[in-house]
């Protein structure tokens, strides 16, 4: 165990660092940024949260004795009434959810076409650019539909983009330097969305309730079986959340001086 006492570590960067079980006492974290960090089981006492912006998955989160994750989820459902449709329970619900995904993304893409193509490669506040977002959704489809559900051990396209903090996975591309034209990315994206459409159109109660067969060979997800329902819910969640991020960032890009 390393102990820091009265240490000046301002501006330090911790990446792929194991801090499980660490204790922070009388520590100044003002202005700190946390990205892709695991905070399960964290206990905070006597903290001051002012101007804090948290975006992530909340489960069993209690603040000052109040269970807040349920409030947050209910408020998001209120703000976005279609959000509840991303949690379908039967084949018809999954088909309706994908109908909605296709319609919403069509509007977002049309909005993006109105921008200077150069801006579609620009990051907003350190997040993915618009084209990187589309590439990541291609990866999500390849991982959870083409690999996990359809059994292709290596479904990847060179433009696939895993999540930002993903480890190096043999055979899985992660070219962050690529700057493909929007038309190229949209063609790839259309192909993958058509794959999801074929899968959801062919769903039955039995196939939705089944588990996938483990896929031989390295890749993501790992070579184990998964509930088909969970694979498709993962894809729907990725589609929903990343479109909201894209819309948020397009607003910022539209506000930049021409």
TrEMBL record:
Residues 102-245 form the DinB-like domain. InterPro entries: 5peptide_repeat, DinB-like, DinB/YfiT-like. It holds the Pfam family DinB_2. Transmembrane segments: none annotated. This is DinB-like domain-containing protein.
């Amino acid at each position: 165990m390393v102990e820091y006492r009265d240490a000046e570590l301002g501006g330090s960067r911790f990446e792929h660092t194991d801090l499980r079980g660490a204790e922070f006492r009388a520590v100044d974290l003002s202005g700190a940024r946390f990205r892709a960090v695991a905070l399960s089981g964290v206990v905070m006492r006597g903290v001051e949260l002012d101007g804090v912006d948290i975006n992530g998955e909340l489960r069993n989160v209690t603040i000052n004795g109040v269970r807040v994750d349920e409030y947050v989820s209910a408020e998001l459902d209120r703000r976005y009434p279609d959000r509840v449709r991303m949690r379908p329970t039967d084949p018809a619900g999954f088909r309706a959810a994908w109908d909605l995904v296709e319609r919403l993304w069509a509007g977002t893409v049309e909005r993006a076409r109105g921008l200077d193509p150069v801006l579609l490669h620009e990051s907003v506040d350190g997040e993915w650019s618009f084209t990187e977002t589309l590439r990541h959704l291609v990866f999500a489809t390849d991982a959870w539909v083409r690999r996990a559900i359809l059994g292709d051990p290596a479904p990847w396209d060179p433009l696939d983009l895993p999540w930002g903090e993903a480890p190096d996975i043999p055979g899985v591309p992660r070219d962050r330097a690529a700057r493909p034209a929007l038309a190229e990315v949209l063609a790839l994206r259309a192909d993958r969305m058509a794959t999801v459409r074929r899968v959801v159109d062919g769903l039955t109660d039995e196939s939705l309730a089944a588990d996938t067969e483990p896929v031989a060979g390295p890749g993501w997800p790992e070579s184990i079986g998964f509930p088909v329902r969970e694979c498709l819910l993962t894809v729907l969640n990725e589609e929903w959340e990343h479109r909201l991020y894209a819309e948020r960032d397009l607003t910022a890009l539209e506000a930049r001086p021409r």
